[in-house]
Amino acid sequence: MIAAVMDPLSSINYAKDTSYYLLRAGLELGHRAFHIDQNDISLVQDQAYALCTEVTLTADKKLEVVAQAHLSLSDMRLIFVRTDPPFDRRYFYTTLMLDYCGPNTKVVNRPQALRDWNEKLAALEFPAFTPPTLVANQLLDFKRFAKDHPGRLVLKPIDGNGGKGIEFLMTDASDFDQVVQRKTEQGRRRIVVQAYVPQASKGDIRVLFLKDQVLGAILRVHAEGKELNNLDQGGSAHPHQLTPRQKEICQAMGPVMHKKGIDFVGIDFLGDHLIEINVTSPTGLQELCLFEKQDFHHRIISELY
Question: Domain of 229?
Fold first, then answer.
């Protein structure tokens, strides 16, 4: 049996949802599949339980509810943790409870890794591959960074996703101080600042990994009149072949992430610069399968089950 801890079934976008595609693959390979809402996970002594909603496939390949049951998560062979950010206190406790699924249940990604690898900060595990980056909340730090890296900066929240909350700021802008103070909530909230990568105007690259190996990559290009390339912001997906430098970076990162228990992950490039490591709910699987004409979703289930 497989399960996905994910957002409500009613929120699924069947044309691009990766969580749905993984459950679908499990069903197509003959496994029973279940949806779990993180609010329905509990602990009884040292054993994790959840209200599990069993699903099946309809004729048009959508998910249909079969039944609900209160099950021990040790009964599951494979559990994907796919709840979208933010990483809040509720999500933190969810990962702690998922540590009690038992030795025979594989949780992807490993709960400890989900706690340790913030999607905006984890890229700094590989500083040689990232653009110049600052994480701070004090105006003086931003001024120093702006002096060292004049030009355009990208400001983004540490706990954001899907391009939400991203802003651009010139280091010589007349309202530089005001923008920084607003984004940091007057110095009470840390944010991530990076030197702008000009290749962003051509799109960003999402690379999906299974264990320590690259499955493939897609190019995400912003919609007309917009700058953000995220699919959630109206961007479109296109085929992409990795550059030699991107391949080199992936080869260096894959074994490190896999050792940490990160078995299904998406990393993002702007040009040849590493920007983010998406461990909570990486997307792009449907598009990659379409472009490469391969059933990567089946391969993921087969190799992890």
Answer: 199-278
